[in-house]
Amino acid sequence: MRIIRACRELGIETVAVYSTADADSLHVKLADQAVCIGPPPSAQSYLSRNNLIMAAINSGCEAIHPGVGFLSENAGFARLVREKGLIFIGPDPDIIDLLGDKVIARDTAKRFGLPVTPGTEEAVSDPEAAAKAAGELGFPVIIKAAAGGGGKGMRIVREEKDLAENLSIASREAESNFADGRVFIERYLENPRHVELQIIADGKGNVAVLGERDCTVQKNHQKLIEESPSPAVSPEMRKRMSDGAVAMFRDLKYCGAGTIEFLVEDGAFYFMEVNARVQVEHPVSEFITGTDIIRQQILACTTGRMEIDPAAVRINGWAIECRINALSPGTVTRLDIPGGPGVRFDSFLYTGCKVPPHYDSMVAKLIVHAPDREQALARMDRALWELNIEGIKTNRRAQQWIIRDSVFRSGNFGTAYYSTIEKEAENALS
């Protein structure tokens, strides 16, 4: 939906692809054309490279936008797109490979003066080598998939006796989800902030930083609420993060949208990873900078230019996004969308649409913008109160509980926050 809207304003015709489970989805209805690429299982539809390429070629497409999930950071798919004479809306496949490998990405970040969390320099598979590395780092440690994200292939280990088993489990998860079983080990930070910078670059060395986003409120490593700016980032820290990120992306000749992620703890920040794609939470950065990120991404990757001057980017006000997740599949029987100043609702929902059980649970994003954090919180509280989705269960009330919580409103919390309030917030669902 987001990509179709940007393309329509650019005068670009769109072709939507869909599985049979999504035949009635709104993006299918609003695209200029729509092509079914298979049955509900992702491996037979949205992850089928050949089906996607044939849909593009047969419908006369010139470019493929990979969205935010599935094959969006798959270098092999990006290469296949280019081999078939199509434009891939994203960075060069070699850059995707480099940044997608977290071990190599850590080394790259260090070259540009970005501090990294202490960890192994290479992937680890041998239990004895893992035990030696963990002992030197100090427990607790975290095992991470070298080629993945989203909490897959990730295990926290607090004692040496649990290391070998978790190493094996993490490797199997990584192999299953990313076809790459390599894992590495880092010192585990107990309660950091999760902060990321939004980047847009044109592939010619021009790199714009569109502020940072705070994504600290998470459940099982899945983000729930994002805001910008971050209450935890000082002007000095923001400059050091931005300077290192710009130097890195400029040297890589990065093209398109991307996000560089950090953990922040005790006044220090540590590079975590790069997402070589547009992120779900990009609307908060759009609100505070007045930038259409998808438009700029498409222009950068198709024409080699952007409409924004990196030196002229200014941060204006405060933006917050709440992810609205379905807790069950079903049919939407009523949908009341919030409105008013500074309110945005991005969704494929409409009255009568069916939410299938096959894919990610997020069904909408509610985003607000206001002059400061206090007013943004009040606006989000009001917008959540106004939002009404009937026919399926959602986390709307839990999100409203968090927005009203005194700890969240204080701005002083870390990634452990949600686990401490989970029962109270989720009781608000009933």
Characteristics:
alpha+beta; eight-stranded antiparallel β-sheet; 25% strand; globular
Describe what you observe in this structure.
This protein is of the alpha+beta class. The chain is built from 15 helices and 19 strands. The strands form six sheets. Strands 12-11-8-9-10-13-18-16 form an eight-stranded antiparallel sheet, with helices on both faces. The chain has a three-stranded antiparallel sheet with strand order 6-5-7, with helices on one face. It has a two-stranded parallel sheet with strand order 1-2. α4 (75-83) packs antiparallel against α5 and α13 crosses α15 (417-427). The protein is globular and about 55 Å long. The relative contact order is 0.11. The model has no long low-confidence stretch (mean pLDDT 95).
Give the SSE layout.
Elements: H1 2-10, E1 15-19, H2 26-30, E2 33-38, H3 49-58, E3 63-64, H4 75-83, E4 87-88, H5 93-100, H6 102-111, H7 127-137, E5 141-145, E6 155-157, H8 163-178, E7 183-187, E8 193-202, E9 207-219, E10 222-228, H9 235-251, E11 255-265, E12 268-275, H10 282-289, H11 293-303, E13 318-325, E14 330-331, E15 334-336, E16 343-347, E17 354-355, E18 362-370, H12 373-386, E19 388-390, H13 396-404, H14 406-410, H15 417-427
Parallel strand pairs: 1-2, 3-4
Antiparallel strand pairs: 5-6, 5-7, 8-9, 8-11, 9-10, 10-13, 11-12, 13-18, 14-17, 15-19, 16-18
Average the pLDDT over all residues and give the rounded result. 95
What's the helix count? 15
Compute the number of strand runs: 19
Report the principal-axis shape: globular
Strand order of the largest sheet: 12-11-8-9-10-13-18-16
Question: How big a fraction of the residues is strand?
Answer: 25-35%
Rg, nearest Å: 21 Å
Largest sheet: 8 strands, antiparallel
Structural class comes to: alpha+beta
Helix content: 25-40%
Low-confidence stretches: none
End-to-end C-alpha gap: 31 Å
